[in-house]
Amino acid sequence: MAPFAFSQEPSAPPVPPNAASAHPRPPRVVAPGVSTPGVVRPLAELHPTAIFPVEGSPDWSVITKSATWVASSRANHVVQLDATTNKPGLIADVQRPCSGLTEGFGSIWSPSCGKKVLTRIDPATAKVTAEILADPANSEGGIATGAGSIWMVIKPATLIRVDPKTNTIVSTLDLPAGSANPAFGDGFLWISSFENNQLLKVDPTSNTIIATIAIGPKPRFLTIGAGSVWTLHQGDGSISRVDMKSGKLVATIQAGLSGPGGDMSFGEGYLWAALFDFPLTQIDPHTNTVIKQWTGQGGDGMRAGMGSIWLSNLRQGNVWRLSPEQK
After folding, report:
1. What is the pLDDT of residues 230-280, one digit of tens each?
2. The sheet that has 143-146: what strands, in order across it?
3. What is the band of 3 on the pLDDT scale with cuts at 50, 70, 90?
4. What is the C-alpha separation between 145 and 135, in angstroms, rounded?
């Protein structure tokens, strides 16, 4: 997911001519991708079955039984992509949606970096039915559904539990600094800790951290699948696989997907990852290897489900629906 580049601050004064040399901008991180023969292929060989135009900057998405919903922060929208008609449908108004989307309890849930609330949306009407005060910890954070609740991390690094029956925060848990991305699996919350290179395991019953697992550098996005938690590391572009039963790191996959943004999803039998300029990477969970990686202008957010891969091309202003059976 792309970090926010918006600001409501007044325009900055002109920069003195010598300021650039005194305070040089950090170099842009360029992801290397993989170099395995036969794995890398051009974007032209990726063939969508449908292309959805989405105003603004389509990014985060969540899959329901009949549609995929995608957040577009520059347009202040959360947009329904109808899986039957392959056309955009309803549009919910959310100020600068960020930090993921989740589905549960008859609703779509979208953090808002604009209003600093958690927004609850009725998918039948796209109307906002509740707003819960919750300032997302990071625009690249996340949100999860599990154990009868909605979970997200708010500033500075506090995990909140929201009761969907009352739309209220019913518990909080302070996390290590830089922890912002939760996922739910095997009855537990799993949270990547970006500043500590760790994966946290949280027991929703006791509301405590019960395990801390060392993983790769700068972990951000994560997903659940094949009995594992998978984390994408913005530090070196690798992916860690942690077995949920044992809590052990069982594999490190060199995917070459370093730098800001990106996303991951497990579905249709594979792990899938996205990043700017490397729109889609396919990983076989049986061998823990990258088997296909497409390169070119596109990508950032993605989800796998309903027999398809849903790829958000943030800079191109569209979402591709793809068959997972790409050549």
Report:
1. 999 999 999 999 999 999 999 999 999 999 999 999 999 999 999 999 999
2. 143-146, 149-154, 158-163, 168-174
3. low
4. 18
- Looking up tokens 């060392």, which residue turns up? 214
Above 70 in pLDDT, residue 17?
Answer: no
Residues 231, 192 contacting (CB under 8 angstroms): yes
Rg of the chain taking only CA atoms, in angstroms:
19
Which residue is associated with the tokens 């991951």? 264
The structure tokens 């995917």 sit at 255
Residue 52 CA to residue 221 CA, distance in Å, equals 24
Interacting residues of 325 by C-beta distance below 8 A, sequence separation 6+: none
DSSP-derived letter for residue 19 is H
Q: Which has the closest alpha carbon to 276: 259, 289, 293?
A: 259
Confidence band, pLDDT 50/70/90 cuts, at residue 327 = confident
**Mean of all residue pLDDT scores within the chain:** 92
Q: Which fold has domain 59-270?
A: Methylamine Dehydrogenase; Chain H (2.130.10)
The domain segmentation of the chain, as residue ranges, is 59-270
Query: Closest Cα partner for 159 from 150, 147, 146?
Result: 150
Structural tokens at position 20: 């650039």
Q: Give the model's pLDDT for residue 297.
A: 94
Residue 215 CA to residue 180 CA, distance in Å, equals 15
What was the pLDDT predicted at 1?
A: 67
Task: Specify the residue for token string 């949100």.
Answer: 143
User: In what side-by-side order are the strands of the sheet with 208-214?
Assistant: 179-185, 188-193, 198-203, 208-214
